[in-house]
Amino acid sequence: MSGDSGATAERVAQMRAQAEELTSQIRRMTNSLGEVARDAGTVEVTATSGDGLIVATVGIDGRLRALHLDPRIYHQPNAADLARSILETADAAVEEAQRRALELYQPLLPGEALSSLVERDPKKLLASLVGELSTLRKAEDGR
C-alpha cells in the first residue's frame, strides 16, 4: 500500500508543479498584455487607393482616424465610384491593421481569444479569457 501512496504523492507533486507553471504563465501573459495593449493603441495603418487620390488611416481597432481626398477627385465627379474607392481603401487599411493586431497579440492569447480580437468583439474576448482563467483555476483548485 505504501507503494501506491508514493505514486499518488508523486502525481500530486507533478500536478502542483504544472499548476504553478500555469499560474506563472498567466502572470507573464497578464503583464505582457498590458504592455502590448499600450503599444497597440499607438499603431495606425495607412492605405492609398490605386489611383493615389484617397488615403485612409485606421487604428489597430479598425476605426477610421484620418481620410484624405485629393482635390483631383472633383475633376471627374462620380459619387458612386468615389464611395466605392473610399470603402476599398479603408478596408485595405483595416485588413492590415488586423494583421498587425494578430502579430502583436498572437504570443499572448489563446486561439479563441485571438479570433475575438480580430472580430473586434471585446465582450467575446473578455468571456474567452475569463473562461481560460476559470479552467486553470479549477485545475489548480483540484490539486
Protein described:
- The chain is mostly helical.
- It folds into 2 domains: 1-41 and 109-143, no CATH class; 43-96, Ybab, Chain: A, CATH 3.30.1310.
- The protein is 66% helix and 12% strand.
- It is built from 4 helices and 3 strands; from the N terminus they run H-E-E-E-H-H-H.
- A 3-stranded antiparallel β-sheet has the order 1-2-3.
- A hairpin with a 4-residue loop joins strand 2 (54-59) and strand 3.
- Helix 1 packs antiparallel against helix 4.
- The longest helix has 40 residues, at 2-41.
- It is rod-shaped and about 85 Å long.
- The two termini are 21 Å apart.
- The relative contact order is 0.13.
- The model has no long low-confidence stretch (mean pLDDT 79).
- It comes from Micromonospora sonneratiae.
- It holds the Pfam family YbaB_DNA_bd.
- This is YbaB/EbfC family nucleoid-associated protein.
- InterPro entries: YbaB-like_sf, YbaB/EbfC.
